[in-house]
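note to self: the first set is below, dont mix up w the second
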Amino acid sequence: MGRTLTYPKRVSNTANRYKHRATYDLGPIHSIINGSQVLHVSFNSGPEDPFPAILPMIGQMGSYDFPSASIDEPLDCYLHGYVSSRIMNLARNCEGDGLPICVATSKVDGLILSLTPNSHSYNYRSAILHGYAKLVTDEEEKLWAMKLITNSVLADRWDNSRVPPDRAEMQSTVILKVKVVDGSGKIRDGGVSDERKDYGNEEITNRIWTGVVPVWETFGQPVPSGDGKLGEIPEHITSFIAKKNAENRALAESAIKVTLPAEEQH
């Protein structure tokens, strides 16, 4: 069995609460990032604004230098955006390692309904990355990243659309490449964890339902729109929908069956 690669534990990414839920392994963290339709990207917008900025963006983990690298190997985070957006302008003018940013995302897999409000929770997966972002200036790497991100929206969509993008489209689109410094994830699986003091109280247990409501993302039936004249829904779309719906449901339902760790058994 090969060595498991992990992110270094630093002040910025080390979990303080529910440490047993934390993971620093590259594989789970990258999988959560790549399985999210939206990534929330935070950065310091400058001295004139006291508030940190946060943007919803589309992105994907990958390696241009080693395109066959697996999900549990060192990868960069590529983010897609518009040429004149604030984050792109900041990254363009940033010297040194690049613009310091944080990438975060989360997925809810279940509602944990317990006897007491304080013990309610979610089954969830969350991940954060810290790194330095620079604009991708190499045209081949930019096209590679655009294909990577497009296919993360829907598998094989790049080859089933008008490609390559024309000159105006390439100029208006900017790709940020984030060199990841550290990362961490948190995962909660399992069923309900009630307070021990309530176990024998039949007045409570006889009137309150407890359990887990599984939650998963579902893709619906495609609805034709726009200028495309193709009547039949292509196989690359229908197979993607069927595959993702089955995977998402299986993940949410299997999470319930995981035995709670000792730290959560009151």
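second set (the one i keep forgetting abt)
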Amino acid sequence: MSLLLQVSDTHFGTEQPNVLEALVWLARQQAPELVVLSGDITQRARRAQFRSARTFVDRLGAPHLLALPGNHDIPLFNLIARVFFPYSNHQRAFGLDLEPSFESAELLVVSANTTRPWRHKDGEISRAQIERVSKRLRKAAPRQLRIVVTHQPVYVTRKSEEKNLLHGHREAIVAWAEAGADLVIGGHIHLPYVRPLREHFPELTRNVWVAQAGTAVSNRVRHDAPNSVNLIRYARSDPDCRYVVERWDYKAGQDEFAVVERTEIKLDRSHVPSNSCQRRPSKDNS
């Protein structure tokens, strides 16, 4: 069984100590194999904020980490840094790779850096990035759960959020679906949800899902969405070829994270010849 913890939009500099401690407790209880930081790790991309973020992540105790920058992780007011070395503080804390990946027998997680120093907060994905991710997805094993990480969302549930959609999202979704992606995870809008994409993208030949996470520990919560994280569970030995996305919300009264939503999703391997996830009719021996 593989377990991935998605932590998004921590916005260090606006973190809440009680929520931080509750998330550390959750991580130590659940023991995820991989922690994914899906952007906006800091509030203003300051070195001290990145140090605090790194200290916090180390306390989670996961053996593997994938950290993707968000628009808040690029300096806003220091224009020289924004133009000439926008990611230096992020890289000092989390390594040089701005598009890290993770692979195990059960998981393939590929990220795309959708931030652009010349944009204030909008995200953008290039054709080269779409193809790089697609190429990696096509090399996945049939039973690997294939996850793509972006910061800005590729799908939103509210018309008011359409302005926050990733530029190039439709081209990316179509290409990644064809290449075998199962799930695209992100943050940015502090609004958690899990949705199938095929009903919203009729050109898709197979189903891909999206899982958005809320803000994990920041006080920058929406009125209708508390602090939250996602846990993703998958075992390739599951005969039904299912994985589970769990939403865990912070409960202030109990001072802990609790699961509030659980979505079971069947892998779509219809594009894979002789795939083992398609049920075969039993033989009639009568």
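remember for set 2: The longest strand covers residues 256-266.
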